[in-house]
Amino acid sequence: MANYFKASDTIYDITEKYPETIGLFVSNGFENLNDPAMRSTLGKSITLEMALSMRKLNQEIFIEKLEEVIEQNLPSFTSGLTPTKKEDGGDIRIEGVLPCPIRLPLLEKFEAWMESQKDYMDYKVDYNLKSANLGLDDVKERVIAADGNADALSDLYLSAGFDLFFDKTLMGRYGDAGVFEDLSDIEQINPDFDKDTISLKDPKNQYAIIGIVPAVFMVNTNVLGDRPIPESWADLMKPEFENSVSMPMKDLDMFNAFLLHIHRYYGDEGIEKMGKALLRSMHPAQMVKSHIAKDGNKVPAVTISPYFFAAMADEKSPMRPVWPKDGAIISPIFLLAKGKNRDKVKPFVDFLYSKEIGDILSSNGKFPSTNPLVDNHLKPEQNFMWLGWDYIHSHDIGELIKTTEKLFYHAAEKELL
What architecture does CATH give domain 214-329+406-412? Predict the structure, then answer.
């Protein structure tokens, strides 16, 4: 149930109280709501529940997206520990983005924990943890503005994003300087990510990973035709899947992870073949209903998607989730902490690495946790494709992203978006 409205509320009531939601309605097929007169007349006679039913939109996901829009327009989120805003300068600064589906429950836990700590902390904490769909542009701008001055950086960063953390024009320039340190002090992470086939524990002890966003794909059995169901990333590179695959290119964290992993395991040829497979770009939330043709667009036979959205697919739809045999591609949720303020930052690292947060990541959001006490309920065949730390530390990841992106778009014969 929504925190700000009920499914039984009228569209008019919701948009009047939260006008920032109008754009979301319009972008999801309710173009009439752009007209104030239509909102006032038609909107008063239709409830949210009725409207979503008519459009065959998933109510739970759409309400979640509405809440995200509303949350982003609320005043800056701070706890009783810090009446100051970020620009006022707290003793500890935390920033980053959280996966959209689990941002609200994570923030609720974070706020409750901050409240419980206020009698024990004699310093101010400024934090800004926004929804991943808003991107990292502002974070990157502040990192660039720091211009090599580590003291100007925040003390803790939480986000997916290979470019932010490894691009040498961004956070990557501070790696060799020893600015950041894995403060979790956990020697052995969750066995799902600490075995012969995969190790997410950074041997240089700089980067911590609290969880992952796995990328899998969904197959539209109605569109597949006589083609066999693809079972691996390699299968998607076959000629029969050219111009048949939808990818989340606007989700840069996942798209960059996709490009890096395909290049790591399949080289330039793999990138070019995946470029040829591209049909169109979709937001992950759209992928759940990607079997529905709209505005004459061709329906993709396969959609690459975060596991969370794949798991949300209606069993009655023709969409079938597939966990690739060569592994779900990993987009890590990094936790990067400055070692300089270890004593003050350590409690936040411990909380964000806790079993409590790990359970939210794994169970509620299907983002497997690296906390060793969390049961991710993964089946033996649910393995992962991972770049590997040796590969990361021996390559200029920022440049590699740019190179693979050019290869991909050239093969797709489409301009950069």
Answer: 3-Layer(aba) Sandwich (3.40)
